[in-house]
């Protein structure tokens, strides 16, 4: 029997998450929780809006499972705050894996992480908690993706690399094998990264980081 899952966040990323959850078919989506101030009268696809973040403690009485379905580009702070709040309330945050992705049985995926359609997570990869491994991204062997990261669509993280906690790797980025991107960094779309980058660095594609 499938279990009921709350989705926390109702934007565009939520739409994609719904599709993955439906295809995986391990959970029934109970409904969506929006941020305070949003219209609660409508639906997202066929799913009701059950309340706001302020109602999570009440909703916990009826639901055991939740997934954060807001996106992450400029900062991981909101996803991190919600993750800690859900854990404090006693929610279980499952791993969601699209049946149209490949995750090696030798890889480890942390709680609350979603692996989207056609992503590939290879052998001996470690992905932390509360991450997004987005559509058609490739995380190669022996790579470490720490907590609260977003590996965006079509990004390639080559073998033995490391992405520090809270970092964002934009669409179509390419990280050379063995390179470390430290915590709270942002790689703009299409960046080719061939050297280690310190924490809190923000790189646009126009920057030269290919030497």
Characterise this structure.
The mean pLDDT is 93. 14% of the residues lie in helices and 29% in strands. By secondary structure, it is α/β, with parallel strands linked by helices. Strands 6-9-12-15-18-21-23 form a 7-stranded parallel β-sheet, with helices on one face. The chain folds into 2 domains: 87 residues, Rossmann fold (3-Layer(aba) Sandwich); 103 residues, Hexapeptide repeat proteins (UDP N-Acetylglucosamine Acyltransferase, domain 1), CATH 2.160.10.10.
SSE layout and pairings?
Blueprint: E1 3-8, H1 12-24, E2 27-34, E3 43-44, E4 47-52, H2 56-59, E5 65-68, H3 77-89, E6 96-97, E7 102-103, E8 108-109, E9 114-115, E10 120-121, E11 126-127, E12 132-133, E13 138-139, E14 144-145, E15 150-151, E16 156-157, E17 162-163, E18 168-169, E19 174-175, E20 180-181, E21 186-187, E22 192-193, E23 202-203
Parallel strand pairs: 1-2, 1-5, 2-4, 6-9, 7-10, 8-11, 9-12, 10-13, 11-14, 12-15, 13-16, 14-17, 15-18, 16-19, 17-20, 18-21, 19-22, 21-23
Antiparallel strand pairs: 3-4
* CATH homolog superfamily of the largest domain: Hexapeptide repeat proteins
How many structural domains in the coordinates? 2
How many helices does DSSP assign? Answer: 3
Total beta strand runs: 23
């Amino acid at each position: 029997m499938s279990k009921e899952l709350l989705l926390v966040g109702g934007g565009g990323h939520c739409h994609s998450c719904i599709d993955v959850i439906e295809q995986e078919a391990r959970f029934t989506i109970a409904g969506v929780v929006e941020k305070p101030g949003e219209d609660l009268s409508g639906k997202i696809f066929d799913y009701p809006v059950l309340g706001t973040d302020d109602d999570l403690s009440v909703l916990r009485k009826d639901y055991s499972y939740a997934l954060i379905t807001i996106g992450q580009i400029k900062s991981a702070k909101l996803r991190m705050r919600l993750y800690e709040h859900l854990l404090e309330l006693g929610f279980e945050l499952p791993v969601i894996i699209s049946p149209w992705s490949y995750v090696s049985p030798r890889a480890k995926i942390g709680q609350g992480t979603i692996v989207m359609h056609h992503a590939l997570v290879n052998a001996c990869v470690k992905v932390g908690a509360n991450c997004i491994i987005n559509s058609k991204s490739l995380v190669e062997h022996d790579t470490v993706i720490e907590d609260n990261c977003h590996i965006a669509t079509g990004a390639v993280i080559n073998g033995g690399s490391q992405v520090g906690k809270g970092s964002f790797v934009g669409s179509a980025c390419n990280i050379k094998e063995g390179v470390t991107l430290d915590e709270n960094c942002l790689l703009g779309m299409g960046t080719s990264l061939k050297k280690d980058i310190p924490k809190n660095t923000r790189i646009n594609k126009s920057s030269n980081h290919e030497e």
